[in-house]
Amino acid sequence: MKVLTEYLKFHTKTHRAYVHITPQIESAVKKSGVQEGMVLVSAMHITAGVYVNDNEPGLIEDIDHWLEKLAPFDKNYQHHQTGEDNGDSHLKALLIHHEVGTWQQIFYAEFDGQRDKRVIVKVMGE
Amino acid sequence: MKVLTEYLKFHTKTHRAYVHITPQIESAVKKSGVQEGMVLVSAMHITAGVYVNDNEPGLIEDIDHWLEKLAPFDKNYQHHQTGEDNGDSHLKALLIHHEVGTWQQIFYAEFDGQRDKRVIVKVMGE
Amino acid sequence: MKVLTEYLKFHTKTHRAYVHITPQIESAVKKSGVQEGMVLVSAMHITAGVYVNDNEPGLIEDIDHWLEKLAPFDKNYQHHQTGEDNGDSHLKALLIHHEVGTWQQIFYAEFDGQRDKRVIVKVMGE
Q: Do residue B44 and residue A104 have CB atoms under 8 angstroms apart?
């Protein structure tokens, strides 16, 4: 079995961001030499996610708006008693989920950005 | 390592549909001869999903009603400026997620049907 | 390829519960001897889920409150015509999703507890 592990690094300029990462994943798969197998793409932080969808700016705007509706920013999360103010980021990440193993347009979804974060990419197979 | 890849094809008669696909997955696993491993079942389109739950008609109706509540059909998604009218289908698919790797009752969830679509089934193991 | 399969058993005291299971997963990985591979952690019931997030009591309270808002307990689900009263548990589990394959803080999320349930843990790799 062949295994290749790579880490993608992010430090978004905005608090929320949706970064298209399909090219990096394709490059990792090519580099691995795996012909038959799976790729795991997983956010290594619990206020970020990885999802699969169209790379269409209007849709990304719709997704962002919709996530804010279902998991709104709010000063009053219990989690904020720890000094954090990113309760909504945790909930948004739960909605989006934090990993995919597939081959469509892949995005890194940042819900608490402006700091260093990583995604792990693991290609396994033969 | 043994790997078997199969594609399931769908062309639903309705715009939204929930199709029970456990038998097809079990059949792929059997055909693969894999005794220990995993199955990836992944929708190859971003307006469809794959999920695991009970095969009970009332529950499927509840799920459909609930998805329409959380990600409603709406004429005003930004995505519709591209000429599409399926913004809600993308959001419903994000909620349901598009892949599972497991062995309960498995469903193909169509949110923008009446066209050709596929699911990939990949069995890997020994 | 090495494969280790273990089952975690749960019987929560409350109807809903969030159980931190990272130590059990780490222990399974260690026992497997796998150095490079993946772990699948999957709830074997469709009214429970597995998710990854912080082990912070306030946040767990926020998550529970939020799930109840998005998928509320309600007497009138169609599914209840079967004699069940756990329609909301099914929807909450769909939101949380029922499996992860990763290495952060892992939780078993029970949405219909006070009965025997299991999680499967499968470590695969070399």
A: yes
Tokens for B71, please give them: 């990600």
Mutation to test the B interface, candidates C36, C41, C42, C88, most B Cβ within 10 Å: C42
- Residues in chain A with CB shorter than 8 Å from the CB of B70 are 70
CB-CB neighbors (< 8 A) of C93 in chain B: 53
CA dihedral (A75, A78, A80, A85) positive or negative = negative
Q: Is residue C102 a contact partner of residue C50, using CB atoms and an 8 Å limit?
A: no
The span from the CA of C64 to the CA of C16, in Å, is 8
Q: What is the value of pTM for the model shown?
A: 0.86
Nearest alpha-carbon partner for A20 in A119, A123, A126, A125: A119
Over 90: is that where the pLDDT of C50 sits? Answer: no
Distance from CA of C98 to the nearest CA of B (A): 8
Q: Which residues of chain B have pLDDT under 70?
A: 98-107, 111-112, 124, 126
Whether B104 and C44 lie within 8 Å, measured CB to CB: yes
Dihedral sign from CA coordinates of B115, B72, B61, C88: positive
Q: What is the pLDDT of residues A38-93, one digit of tens each?
A: 787 877 777 888 888 888 899 999 999 999 999 999 889 999 999 988 899 888 88
How far is the alpha carbon of A53 from chain B, nearest alpha carbon, in Å? Answer: 5
CA C66/CA C61 separation, integer angstroms? 9
pLDDT at B78: 94
